[in-house]
Amino acid sequence: MAFLLTCPNCGERDVHEFRFGGELNKRPAPDAAPETWATYFYTRRNVAGEQKEWWYHSFGCRKWLIALRNTVTNQVIKTSWPEEALP
Amino acid sequence: MVNTNTQSRLPLRPTHLIDQDKQVSFYFNGQQVSAYAGDTIGSALYASGVRIFSRSFKYHRSRGLLCGAGRCPNCLMTVDGAPNVRSCTTRVEAGMKVTGQNAWPSLEHDALSVLDKMTPLMPVGFYYKTFHKPKLFWEVASPIIKRVAGIGAVDLENYPKEHSHHENLHTDVAVIGGGPAGMSAALAAAEAGARVTIIDDQLNLGGHLRFDGRTHRGMHGMADMAGYEVAAALRGRVESVRNIQVLSDAIVFGLYEGNFVAINQRGKVMHMRAKRVVVATGAQESPLTFDRNDISGVMLSTAAQRLMHLYGVRPGASAIIGTASDHGYHVARELLDAGVRIAAVADARPSFPSGLDAAQALQSAGVLVLPSHAVARAEGSRRVVGGVVARIEGGAVTREERQLDCDLILMSGGFQPVTSLLQQAGANLKYDAAAGATVPADLPQGVYAAGKVTGTRDAHVSIMQGRLSGLEAVGGLAGKAASAQEIAAIRDAVSHLQNGTREKITTVEPPIAPGNGSKQFVCFCEDITAKDVAQGVDEGFEDVQILKRYSTVTMGPCQGKMCHRQYVTIVSNRTGASIDSLGSTTARPPFLPVTLGDLAGPAHMPRKRTAIHRVHEAMGAKIVDVSPWLRPHNYGDPKAETMAVRKAVGIIDVSTLGKLDVAGKDAAKLLDKVYTHRFSDLRPGRIRYGIITGDNGAIMDDGTVTRLSEDRYFVTTSTANIDVVEEWFKWWMAGTGMCCHVTNITSGYAAINVAGPKARDVLKKLTSVDLSSKAAPYMSATEAVVAGVQTRLLRIGFVGETGWELHFPAEYGEYMWTTLMDAGKEFGISPFGLEAQRVLRLEKKHIIPGQDTDILSNPLSANAEWAVKFDKPDFIGRGGLLASQKWGMKTKLVGFVMVDPIVPHDGSPIVLAGTPVGRVTSARMSPTIGKGFGLAWVPTRLATDGTVIQISVDGRLFTAEVQNAPVYDPEGVRLRE
């Protein structure tokens, strides 16, 4: 893994400056069934293709950002602040 | 002393890398050898008469120089304790100690060469077929095979102990390969204003042109000159350009995504990020396939050229040259000029190339030139003493043979593009039948190819392609661009030239000598013969990828550079499938072997120290590594430190605790959301313990939360989890629009915990603020000036005594510590370290997340139900904890006291009827009750007071009793005094 990720604050950086925070998933309602919560917590869609995901710039500005990345080619299509990317 | 044999050295030439006026000496197998400055170990040894450089991997056959370019396994030797050094491209340094490998007692006479007589017992994939029955066979054979396998060995006393360096580099255009194409690309890109780095694996730039004596007519405004003069001219221009950085003797061992170029240069690894990459790695000469084509004295024709033209070494006395193109003739003429007798030139092509100057020259000199002939076998047991050439008819080598005496057989089997790095970058390959080579196609964005790697064999074309790549690479880089017209013009010129030259260069597929191929080596690294490959196909492995894994062909140090073409050709011949349809094996890093030491680099392990660290050292503390911190474990007597806290007063440096400033009108809302406890109703000046859980209710961390004002909180976390907690807080706010700022202030504040019955007495000497239990009750915070320093005093009690955690600016660390020690002297103050702290807190049953909990423990099972406020509308983990409550918990964390007089280890298993059912998380000797005690996870049904449990310690069972009350001050009276 050696691709570059553009932090909206700091600019283009080596991916190793960041910590991967998982797929962007919709959080179930507090009163949803335990099975729904278990799926949310333990399973992943793991798409082969474009994926919206969380990254934390741990060795930089220490802010969270969202990336749209193709998991097959590792091409990062775009990065943005969470406010812009979350539904 | 073995002298560089002056009789084997040639007169001085402009292509030489050696300086015949400067001598250097080194040791080979204990004997001193004299060399010239600029010699490589390989060239110096060859000049001094050494012919056996190594013993092959499996059969221990005697091997001499083969490629002379650092691309094959034959010259690997141990140099100054470092094994597997490519001696033919390693410069001699004074006093170097070089020894042969993989041979005993000597390279000349290796006892294990007996394996060469046992080859019928070791067919392809034999290790999959033998050592099964009886099973004992493998148990006996395995240690022997382990000892015999491998080539070099690490000398555990004398290996090089200096750590390798790592560097990070940036460049606009990385040019991999410093031959004519690479240099031209670099010059074009640099002219356009780009920063360029050339990485070349040889000892000087120029590639094959360095030893090319053919005249090249009028290249690009230059007069007619010899190839090596073109190389020198380009080199001179490159050296004069400021924005071209040259890394020589440097191997690109990996080309990764994002144009990340991994470079290894003698004890250094460089991580280079390039905006564009031009791959100009050229072409590799292939060996020929004939009987005994691997013994010492058989080498590539370019290896002989390197010896002659770079190092002034005559390669032998008398030679046979096997060739499939004009190239062999050029080399033959150069050998003649160097005083080598030519026994014969065997040309696989049907007719004599009468238009070729070199051919004419050979003929005039009376050299025997044999069209339609190929080398059938080499003669000699350890070194070439003769060769047999045979006539080719109908594309196959016949038995019409002729024997010739010689001590050198040169192989010119054609040139294969070195496409590995392009494949690593994601390019595809396609077989270009006209060029007789597999060439790159579909290059990824930002990666370009130029020169022989694209399949061309013409230096003109290489230079033009280089220029074109350099200009194309620069396109799109800010502020630097070549005009589209210029690029189009060069592209036209290149294809025009290519079409012109293609007709001129004639080459044929070199034929494979007849016979079963049992001594025809395909893979020199792994000792795989043509027979092995054919047999693998016959056994059903018809796919080149799978047969590679079955036979190990191409898997050695050369990574297919010597063998890939012949390998695929044999599979093609055997299966009838075309070379194109068979494809190639996958090229993976490293391109050439890199040592683990170089990959590991400086072994730099950063460790954090608190602001008070030097004082701890001065006080004689035993410092332990609790990554990433260094902390005092004890100050000489942990038992005494423990007693001092209980009876008098002690201080401990807790600066490592995570500290967060959480501020904003939504700060309370955030904390209520991420903690199981409630903090919105915490009064300013009060402190509450909090646990953070994940969505599944499992404990992530614990700590204290102090409310400073309506909108401001001061949060402490455990030392190990500050980064996780900071990330977690920020993540829950991300995109929500919450007005709250979380700032990590861990290193800004130092912290000292002053604890014990006399703690208040000590502090009263240093501050005027009222610290009575009325004014400053347990779990309250006070801001005050202590010893002149603005300090936040948190009255909390991890160790179970009256005490305060002092937080103050870190720059006062040493001052506060020494001031407290002085003020406390009359009260018997003692410093205490981690060990004492562990015992003290354990006596109070205060858990440490990560020590007493694991990633599935939740507050309900870990004795902290009181910290969970289910009446909050929502918090992270509520659902998980409710589910856990509903379904019940399998294990619970309990306190225990030993019945037997022993202290278990942290981690000792709890055993029930012979089965481990739980574990001790922390255990110590209690100074209060004089018995072993601790915390343990046990099955829920055993979690009641008085239950007898069995603990396994070092294999024996001991008895303990569950006791849920803390062994010290269970009511917490001391804390509140």
Q: How does this model look, in words?
A:
The complex is a heterodimer of chains A (87) and B (977). Chain A is an alpha+beta fold. In chain A, 15% of the residues lie in helices and 37% in strands. Chain A contains 2 helices and 6 strands. Chain A has a 4-stranded antiparallel sheet. Chain A is globular and about 40 Å long. The model of chain A has no long low-confidence stretch (mean pLDDT 93). Chain B has 24 helices and 49 strands. Helix content of chain B is 24%, strand content 28%. In chain B, the strands form 13 sheets. In chain B, strands 8, 9, 12, 13, 14, 15 and 28 form a 7-stranded mixed sheet that branches. Chain B has a 6-stranded mixed sheet with strand order 40-41-42-39-33-43. In chain B, strands 44-47-46-45-48-49 form a 6-stranded antiparallel beta barrel. The longest helix of chain B is centred in the middle third of the chain and has 21 residues, at 484-504. Chain B is of the alpha+beta class. The model of chain B has no long low-confidence stretch (mean pLDDT 93).
Main beta sheet of chain A, described? 4 strands, antiparallel
The low-confidence parts of chain A are none
What is the count of β-strands of chain B?
49
Biggest protein-protein interface? A-B, 25 and 23 residues
Q: Could you estimate the helical fraction of the residues of chain A in percent? A: 10-25%
Strand content of chain B: 25-35%
What assembly state would you assign to the polypeptide chains in this entry?
Answer: heterodimer
Which range does the strand content of chain A fall in?
Answer: 35-45%
Which value, in Å, is the CA radius of gyration of chain B?
38 Å
| Sheet/helix structural class of chain A | alpha+beta
Total beta-strand segments of chain A:
6
Class computed from helices, strands and strand pairing of chain B: alpha+beta
* H and E string of chain A: EEEHEEEH
The chain-level mean pLDDT of chain B equals 93
- The average pLDDT value of chain A, as a whole number, equals 93
**Strand numbers in spatial order across the main sheet of chain A:** 3-4-5-6
Gyration radius of chain A, rounded: 14 Å
